[in-house]
Structure formats: C-alpha cells, structure tokens
C-alpha cells in the first residue's frame, strides 16, 4: 500500500523493530558460532544490546511479546516432533523426581533470601515462585543444536520440564491466592487437577489419535497436509494449555510429540517447521535480552541482591535436579542439573505478576529479571561443557551449527 | 508460563484468534480444493465467516494486521525468489503500459461514479485513488499455485504491479495533499523520485550484489545461511520500502528477486521459505475477509453503490490492463487483464486514510470495502479460467494444489 500514513506508521515501526531484532540476532549468532560459543547466548546478548540497556533501538512491546511467544511455541513443537512419547514415559519416574526436587529447593532458597533481605512474607513467597520454573526452550535449543535430543538425559530434562511447569502453576496459584488473601482450596484443587488431567490426557491419547489419522494423509505422500495438520494442532493445544493454566509451550510440545511417530519419515515436515523456527525463534531469544534494563543496577544493594539470587537459582536447580537423577552416572546427573538452570521468560512473567499485584518491590523485581536473563546466559556454555563428549561427529568441530535432519537429506538427495 | 493472568490473558486471546483464523483458513482451503475451486477464495471466505459479518469470533486488530502484513511480505518474497530480474526487464515496456493504463481508467471511473453519486470533489478523488492499486499478492498466490509464475503474462503482471504501486503512491500523495488543501509540488516531486529511484536502484543493483556475495555462502552448501540472509534482506527491504513510501511487499518482492539467481539450485531455501508462507499467508487472506462487515448493507443505496463500484473496478482494470498488453494474443491480453483485478488490502487502506482525513462518508467507505473484498473473490476463478489451458500436467486435475519446487524434489530424493 502506498504512503506511510495512519495505521501504516505503526506497522512500519513494528516491522522496523522486527527487522532490527532479527538482523542483530543472526549477526550475533554467527559471531558466537565462529568463536565456538553457543549461538543462543549471542542472540540473547543481541537483545541486551539493542534493548533499553544499551542502544535503546527497540523497546519490548505487546506485539513483540506475541511474536516471541509464537517463536518459542514453534521451538517446542519442533522439539516435540523429535520426541517419541514412549521415550518420555520410559524416564517418567526419574523425570518426576527431577522436576519435583528442582522445584522445592529453588523455592526454599528464594523464600529464605527474600526473608533475609527484609522482604515481606508474600514477597518472599513470590521470589520463591519466580525461582521455580525452568525455561526449557533454551535448553531444547542448545540440545537440538548439538543433535542430542535423543539422549536419555535430554528426555529426562524434557519430561521434568513438564512436571516443573505444572508444579510451578500450582505454586503460583497458591502464592497469588495468599497475596490477595483469598485462599480457596477447592479452586486450587480444580486448577491443579485440570492442569494435570489435560497434560496426561493429551500426552497419552494424542499420539494414538494421530497414529490412526496419519495413514490417511500419508497415502498422499505430501508434506503440506501433514504440516497444516501440525500447525492447527500446535496452535490449538498451545491455546488450550493457556486456558487450562499451564504454559503454551507445554501444549506445543505435546502437539509435536503426538506427531513424532506419524511424521518420523517425513523430512518435509521437519524442513517446513524449521523454516518457521529459523524465522521466529530469534524474536523469543532477543526479547529475553531486551527485558533487561541495566539502568536499575546503579545501587549496589540491587547488584548484590541480583548476584545472590542468581547464584542460588543456579546452584539449587543444579543440586535439586541432579539429585533427582540419582542412580545415573555423576556426569549424567550434572547434565540434567545444568539443563534445568535457565529461567528465561518464565521467571520474568512470575515477577511481573507480583509487580502487578503490588506485592514485589522494584529492587526484587530488578534482581529477578537479572536472574532470569543471567541463568539463561550461563546455562548454554555449561550444557555445552557437560555434554561435550557426547556430541556426534558433526558436533565436535562446530557443535552449535544447527542440527537439521533434512539438511543431510537434501545433501544426499 | 503458568496461570493466565495479567498480560498473559491478552496473549491467550491473541493466540486464540490466530488459532481460529488458521484452522478456519486451512479447512476452507481444503473444502474449496476438493470442489476444484481456488483455495484463496476459501481462505478469504473463512475470514468473512469468522469475522464481524457472520460469527464475530475474531475482530480485526492491530496485532492481527501486523501478522497478516508479515504474511503477504513473505508471499511476495517467495514469488520474487521464482522471478529472475531479466525476465521482468524483458517485458518492461509492456508492464509499464499495463500498469499505467490500469491506473488511469479505474481512477477516472471511480471519480465519475462518486461525482455522479453526489460525492464532493475530494471524496471523488479518494474513491478514484482507492480503485487504483492492485493487490498483486492474490494473483501471485493463484499463479504460484498453478505453477505459472514462469509465463510471460505472469511477468507482465508482476512488473505492472510494481509500476501500479508507484503510480498509486503518487496519486494518493496528490489526493491527500488536495484534501488538506496543502499541495506542495516540491514535496510531491521528492516523494515520486524517491519511490522510483529506490525501486530502480534495488531492482538493478540488488541481483548483481547478491550474485557476488552468494558464491561465498554457496561453498558451504548449507540452506540456513542462505535462508538467514534472505530473512534479513526481505524484512530490511520491506521496511525500507515503507519508509520510502511504496508498499512493503514491493521491497519483499525485490529482495526475493535479488536472490532468485543465486538460490536457483537451492531447494532448501524454497522449502524453508514455504514453511513460513504456509503458516503466515492464511492470516493475510483471512484478514482481508474479516475487514468486511455485511451489517452496513442494510440500506439499498449502499448495496447499489457497492455493486456499481465493484463492477467498474473490475471492468476498467480488465480493459485498461488488457489494452496495455496490446500486441499479445487476445487470450494473453485477457490473462493480464484479470490478473490485475484484485484490490485486496490496498483499496481498504486508501479508503481508511480517506476516513481518517474525514473526507469520505460512511456509505462510500462501505462500498469501497465491499469492492476490495469482492474483486479479490471474483478474480481467482477468472484467472483460473483464462489460464486454464496453460496449466502444467499437475495443474489440470487439481490446479490449486500448492505448487512447490522442493515438493517434487523431495519425492525424487
């Protein structure tokens, strides 16, 4: 349409912001890969640089938040596509233990730090809750890049992330209820049951249903009907998850998992999906970096609080989740431990809710924000380190080069 | 993130809207394909059905508008990827004539209808301007689906759409200036020169620059560096176009065209891009349908006006553009004529600007809106009809099945 006028001005501004985000992300990813560092770290730092902290070229906004959310939804859908349901069920008990211990320890740590730092009871509860939920997207991206999603510890991490999210929902429901002074145990019970029921139902029935439907589409041997089914299922279950109360990415992951077996041989499906993720995931990563505003760290107290919270956020997840994986080798326990460290957008959202309810002070909000971004930046190199010897042939020389099934396929073809 | 609270409520609502849009679009596309009708028509009708006209499940919004815009940007990028610059230059003169005549006739028709219908002078100018600009996305989608983007008439249509958009910009600039009473000829000249200069520069230099750069990336034989370059170029030129004053899709088309030769053998690039278009283009089509609100057609006068404007919008484009292609066979002249009929989002935006400047009355706005959606629905069957005998082997049985280079490739592989 001609002329930048009216609504088009806003559209041009949003497109400009998206352009800056993707260009910065891709350039930083390239630089980090050449330095043999995780690309995700480069992409998150790109957000810190172009965001309010440094250059101030792009500000977080609702629209950017939505695009970022769609990005992480497709990231988890892609991970789901490479995850067969049985492989998760096989590590189910371990994943449950990892998820549970990985929730309890950080919650206690967050609570105690906040109490020690003159926080109120409700505030301390919120800080604890903010330390709970793992942002599995970051770990999934790194493990996918290494081609290690097939490993047993990867399955445990993915399974634990689902448990983690459900427990996080329950804790946040309790904490929110306590903060408003209206604890309704029946409501809480309903919320918990709905979340657990929905997840269990989709996880168990989803794959069977898809296996029944798939052969009809498979006869055509076309990629697009598969892909279209995937798109609808992915967005549908993401939305359903949100309304049930769990994260949208849980639904996307379950949708991908339901299609993992039917589309196992369908490389076109993977390729089409990776077109979407290549485009949209950078917005998710850059958006995390953009949340950080270093200006709030003028006061030393805030810096100290942020460092303490970040330290304990890392150490309690590492120990809690590592212990949950008891029985595996120490190396594998460490792999699970570091895989659960990133908090990313999840911790931020919890803190924002606390801020919205006016129960969290600015210094705690700033510290949690820092923790969320910092854990996300710290984890990838650690994951790379602890998984290093397990990388496949391609992985050694440049482990963070995108792993892509159909890439190899194309070369052979 | 757990719990639908605060900002998450809005996110959940937007995701729900996007889910409804894509599910409705894909289902309607499937139904229309089985009835041997153009899928685009199904997708636009899906928008009419779920939009304010019928069910009211989804309302047009700024966020949906942005997603739709990104969709049509990638659609034109994809079309550009299949269009070599020389092939457009070869039909340059003809495209120029088609574009110019296809602008003059509809403008005059719109102006005269509005004057005859008791419109003011400024209003008549706006109605004329709203009838000018072709929405090439619709035609590109249909021709791409038929696998006919290689045809001479397709090249003429694409070239003419670029001319059309630049002339549309100039006309809209003049009309807007007249309506505010501040006609500044120097400014108008600058706008026109900038638009023409930018387009000419990118069109001529873009491909050469990419051909120089491409071999460096080509050594790696990887799809993703190519695709990432494409993403940055596509969004970058789209944004630049908007700031220059021409449509974002012109920039996206030029970006694709610049990469058409370097990526000719790169099927992965096409596949990755088509993953994005499969996901995002439906939002563009559904959004067009959603703009229509049938409730305004309670008065017979509005209905009559809408029908008259739509009729002349079709006939003047058909004759104007057909005559511009003088020298070709009558069949080809008709192909060019019908290819330029759809107005889609462009006419709507012009009318919205007029409404924003308070120079267009509601009845004219409703009529133009109807015209924009109606021409978009009328054109695809006509295009199908006039191109029918030219469709390739795949095309005859089910011509609107997605044409996809890498689809065949995958089957061979």
Structure in words:
Two copies of one chain form a homodimer. The first copy, chain A, has one domain (68-390): Na+/H+ antiporter like fold (Up-down Bundle). Chain A has 18 helices and no strands. Chain A has helices spanning 7-34, 39-50, 62-81, 85-90, 92-116, 121-130, 136-146, 152-180, 185-218, 223-244, 248-258, 267-291, 300-324, 330-339, 344-356, 362-387, 393-397, 405-412. Residues 1-5 and 393-413 of chain A have low confidence and may be disordered. At the A-B interface, helix 1, helix 3, helix 8, helix 10 and helix 12 of A face helix 1, helix 3, helix 8, helix 10 and helix 12 of B.
Q: What is the strand and helix layout of this fold?
A:
Two copies of one chain form a homodimer.
Chain A: H1 7-34, H2 39-50, H3 62-81, H4 85-90, H5 92-116, H6 121-130, H7 136-146, H8 152-180, H9 185-218, H10 223-244, H11 248-258, H12 267-291, H13 300-324, H14 330-339, H15 344-356, H16 362-387, H17 393-397, H18 405-412
Helix pairs in contact in A: 1-2, 1-12, 2-12, 2-16, 3-7, 3-11, 3-12, 5-6, 5-8, 5-13, 6-8, 6-15, 7-16, 8-9, 8-14, 9-10, 9-11, 10-11, 10-12, 12-18, 13-14, 13-16, 14-16, 15-16
Which class do the helix and strand fractions of chain A yield?
A: mainly alpha
Spans where pLDDT lies below 50 across 5 or more residues of chain A: 1-5, 393-413
Distance between the termini of chain A: 41 Å
> Largest interface, per-chain counts?
A-B, 77 and 78 residues
